[in-house]
Amino acid sequence: MRVVGADEEGVVRRALSVLRSGGVLVYPTDTLYALGCDATNEEAVRRVFEIKRRPFEKPLPVAVASIEMMRRYCELDKRAERLARAFLPGALTLLLRKKNLPDIVTSGSAKVAVRIPANELALKLIAALSKPVVATSANISGMPPPISAEEAIAQLREVDMVIDAGRLAEERIPSTIYDPETGEVVREGRIRREEIEAVLT
Questions:
Q1: What is the architecture, at CATH level 2, of domain 2-200?
Q2: Model pTM above 0.90
Q3: Domain limits of the chain?
């Protein structure tokens, strides 16, 4: 089911129904189109792995709607909170110790990659669900991440809903993944290490 994101309230209502029933959907973020489900629903998370053909040993990132929601599902120390307040919503993913999330999301790891996307529709949907939503790129593993709904649909045929918000960007640049506990930049993306260090010094 492809839905153009013009009537935002109607789209969020339909997408919320999909998520609550354990469905999987493609939705826009501020960086790329994401493949998502209710991150607390183990069966739905399993479907995301299968649809994306992603190895179960490779953890999935999640999106939350606020720092308060992040705190409910992650351990947020002072360094992490400082970064969250400086860059989020935005293209920084923090690797934090998880709480209240099933092990399948993190492939058994104690940490989860979490961010707040700077996309109004995504934020409304996550806030309405009041739970984290899986936020992996909407592509087959190893293929280019999609910046349009058409690109996502061409790769992923088994999703329950696609929210089409048009072309998102010209460059396929993902978020930066940073571990505040170790100081490691796990993946360099839109936000540079120097920008992160400037906030922490």
A1: Alpha-Beta Complex (3.90)
A2: yes
A3: 2-200
